[in-house]
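so my prof wants the structure for this chain in the tokens format not the other one, which i didnt know existed until like an hour ago. anyway here's the sequence
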Amino acid sequence: MKWRQLPLGPLQTNCYLYSNEQKECLVIDPGGDGNKLISILQQQQLKPLAILLTHAHFDHIGAVDDVRKQWNIPVYVHKNEKEWLSDPSKNGSQLFMAGAVSVSDPDELIKGEGRLEIGSFVLEVYETPGHSPGSVSYYAKEADVVFSGDALFAGSIGRTDLPGGNHEQLIKSIHNKLLILPEETIVLSGHGPDTSIEQEMETNPFLNGF
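here's what i got, hopefully its the right format
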């Protein structure tokens, strides 16, 4: 299994392409620049099987419809943010100068934690709310990576001042769901460079005491 990080969209949100040897892939958080993303997928001869969203803020969903229509694949998001994709007042785009973002409703709802199988891909879904009510993280044990969205960053944590944000809940999510992963697990965040669980346990100033 391989992964590639692609900063896309107005906030250069990290989109991830998680692929196998058969050149199938999962597209995680396609935040924008749909034509560019499609071109990269075609150049690499990758076949997307699904779009997975860590949450439904506007900077993570901008290219959802472009990719979905190109390959006719389902979009997964947590049930708590079912209506966010099509509602600029909920996905946060009304609050920013980038303009209203609205995409079609999701095809599949994540209703809780557990095993998610798509083709040959096996992921563990962890509910990690706090940055937003429906934030989830996807742990790929086979690749030793966790796609953490905007919950945990290198040296930082997600903002909690947007609607539905909760700082105490976010800290609890990170502590109970992410820091329990093997220390060598690579953390692939929604913004910025990758890091590791060990690195964040040792140096993240927001997690002192954990």
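also thought this was worth mentioning. The first strand starts at residue 2 and ends at 8.
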